[in-house]
Amino acid sequence: MTREVHHYINGAIVQGTSGRFGDVYNPALGAVQAKVALATREEVTTAIDAAQAAQPAWAALNPQRRARILGKFVDLIRANMDELASLLSSEHGKVLADARGDIERGLDVLEFSMGAPHLLKGENSDSVGSGIDTYSMRQPLGVVAGITPFNFPAMIPLWKLGPAVASGNAFILKPSERCPSVPFRLAELATEAGFPAGIVQVVNGDRTAVDALLEDPRVRAYGFVGSTPIAQSIYARAAELGKRAQCFGGAKNHCVIMPDADLDQVADALVGAAYGSAGERCMALSVALPVGKETADRLVEKLTERIAPLKVGAWDNPDADYGPLVGRDAYERVRSYIDQGVEAGADLLVDGRDLVVEGYESGFFIGPSLFDNVTKDMSIYTDEIFGPVLCIVRCADYEEALALVNDHEYGNGVAIMTNNGGAARDFAHRVQVGMVGINVPIPVPIGYYTFGGWKASSFGDLNQHGPDAFRFYTKTKTVTERWPSEPSTGAKFIMPLGDQS
Ligand code: NAD
C-alpha cells in the first residue's frame, strides 16, 4: 500500500479528510512513492484554534526555558540525521551529503534562535524627561505561519520555525506538497523535544490551505519562500489584510569573472554552484560573466574539462555529484528552456537533455548543460530555469558585466571572482543584489547574519534569520513611565517635550 503523509495538529497526527491527495515522487525512479493529504479549510482552522489556545502560556514562559526546548529539538534532529537525510533525498532527489547540508543549515538557525533571551531584550533610557523613564519590549505576534518551497525541505522550515517559536509565537507550517515527509517528522520531533501541543504544527496542502491561513484574522504573519509570482501575490494579500509578511522569491545569480582571477578556482567553483543539487537552489549560479574574450575562451575550456567527468545519479549513489530534478514538470520545463536557448541562437556546448542513468531510465535526470554566447534578450538569460544549466554571457569590460547584474529583474545572490581588491570593493558597493560573494560562489550568510535578496527576489523589508527574523516575529512596545512624588501643577496643553531645560 502507498505510504500516506497527513497533518500534525495539536501534538498529534491528524488524518486528512478532504479525500484529495498530492503525489510524492521518488524522482530518481520517476515513480510515485507516497501520497500527501491536502488539507481542507476546516483542518487548517483546527490547527489555528490549537495554536491560538496554546500561544499565551508559551509566550509567558521564561525565554530561557523556550530556548532549552529548542536545544533538545536540535539534539533530536542530530540524533535522527540519517533517517531525515534519507527521507529528504528520496523525495527531493538531491544526493545524501547535500541533504545533510540542508538539515545542518537549518540547525544553524535553530542554534542562533537559542540566543532568544538576549535577542529579545528591549532598550531602556533613564530620565528622558523630568522623572520620566522610557523602555521598550519585544512581544510575540501570536499565531504565525510559514509557507515553504520544495527545494530545501528542512532548512527553510527550520529558518522560519526557530525564530518564530523562540520569540513566543505558535507556528503553523504549510510545507511544499512535493517533499512533505521531513517537515512532518520535524513536527513529531518537536513534540518529543517538549514543545507544548499547538506550538509547532504542520498542515499539508495546496492553495486551499494557504488561503485558509491567509484569510483567518488570527494568523498575524507569514514567512513565505517560493517562486516570485506566488511570493508577490501572498505579500500583496497579506498587506491588504493588514498583516505582516516577508516573501522571498526566485533568482538568477550571476558570477562576474575578472581577467586576473585564478580560472582553475573559478571553474571548480562554478561547476559546483551551477550544477550542485541539479541547479535547484535559489543561490545557484546560473550565469557566468567573463570579462574579456581571452578570459571567456579560457573559462570555456576549463568548464568543459570539468563537466565531462561529472556523475549524475540517484540520491543514494555515493559517487553521484547531483541527482534528478524534483518532478516531471520541472524536468520538462528545464528541457524546454534548453530547446529555447538553441532556437534563440546560443551555442549549446554541453547538452544534458538526453542523459539516461542506467537502472533509472524513468528518472527526471538532466545532465549538466552549458551555453556560450548567450545574450540578454534570450529566455535562458531572463528567466529562472532552476535546473543544471549554466549560461555564459561574454562581456567586453567590468562596467558591462556590472550593468547586466544590476539591470536583471532578480537580485538574490551574486559573486565576483578576482584578485583585485579595488575591483571587489567597487563591486560590493555598487551591485544591486542582496547577498554578495567575493571569490565565494554561493554566499549564503551564516545564521547570525540575515538572508535575503533584492528586487523581484524579495518582498518585505526584513530578511530571514539573524536579528531581522526576531524583529519580524515580534512587535515592539515602548513604555514611558513617571511616578510623581510632587503635587500636581495642573493640566498642560503643549506637546510633551523630552528636554524641558
Ligand atoms: P512555489 O512557489 O511553487 O511553491 C512555494 C510554496 O507556495 C509551496 O508551499 C506551495 O504549495 C505554495 N503555493 C504554490 N502555488 C500557490 C498558490 N497559487 N497559492 C498559494 N500557495 C501556493 O515554489 P517551489 O517550486 O516550491 O520552489 C522553488 C522556488 O523557490 C524557486 O523560484 C526558488 O528560487 C525559490 N526559492 C527562493 C528562496 C529565497 O530565499 N529567495 C529560497 C529557496 C527557494
TrEMBL record:
Alphabetical list of Gene3D superfamilies matching this protein: Aldehyde Dehydrogenase, Chain A, domain 1 (3.40.605.10), Aldehyde Dehydrogenase, Chain A, domain 2 (3.40.309.10)
Entry's Gene Ontology molecular function annotations: malonate-semialdehyde dehydrogenase (acetylating) activity; methylmalonate-semialdehyde dehydrogenase (acylating, NAD) activity
UniProt keyword tRNA-binding, yes or no: no
Enzyme class: oxidoreductase
Domain Aldehyde dehydrogenase, residue spans: 16-479
EC number: 1.2.1.27
Top-rank lineage group of the source organism: Bacteria
Record carries keyword Oxidoreductase: yes
Keyword tags: NAD, Oxidoreductase
InterPro entries in the record: Ald_DH/histidinol_DH, Ald_DH_C, Ald_DH_CS_CYS, Ald_DH_N, Aldehyde_DH_dom, MeMal-semiAld_DH
NCBIfam families associated with the record: MMSDH
Database matches in PANTHER family: MALONATE-SEMIALDEHYDE DEHYDROGENASE
Protein name as it appears in the record: methylmalonate-semialdehyde dehydrogenase (CoA acylating)
